[in-house]
Amino acid sequence: MKPFAWNYAQPADPAPALVSYSYDATLQLNVLSDGRPAISDRALLAAAGTTTSKAGSATHFDD
Fold first, then answer.
1. CA-CA distance, 5 to 61, in Å (whole number)?
2. In the chain, what are the helix, strand and coil shares in percent, each to the nearest 5?
3. In whole angstroms, what is the distance from residue 35 CA to residue 24 CA?
4. pLDDT tens digits, 3-29
5. Strand, helix or coil for residue 63
6. CA nearest 30: which of 52, 49, 47, 46?
7. In this structure, are residues 53 and 23 in contact, taking their beta carbons and an 8 Å threshold?
8. What is d(CA 29, CA 11) in angstroms, rounded to the nearest whole number?
9. For the whole prediction, is pTM greater than 0.70?
């Protein structure tokens, strides 16, 4: 027996590729490959939710 919701299920859209960012120790924040702060890329924030830094502790956020 097939569940009722199975008739209406649709495949999920593939997740967009995330732009990579890295931590810049001099600026003490995450930066994109072109040098802009990662926080300035709205698409990255929407996809990743946040840009968490590894500086100091795992609870430090670059906002």
1. 39
2. 20, 15, 60
3. 9
4. 777 778 777 776 666 668 888 889 888
5. coil
6. 52
7. yes
8. 37
9. no
CB-based contact 26:50 (threshold 8 Å): no
The CA angle 27-29-35, to the nearest 5 degrees, is 70
CA dihedral 51, 62, 52, 38 (to 10 degrees): 30
Cα atoms in the Cβ-side hemisphere of radius 13 Å centred on 1: 2
Please, which residues have CB within 8 angstroms of residue 21's CB and are 6 or more apart in sequence?
Answer: 30, 31, 32, 33, 38, 41, 44, 51
CA distance 38 to 4: 43
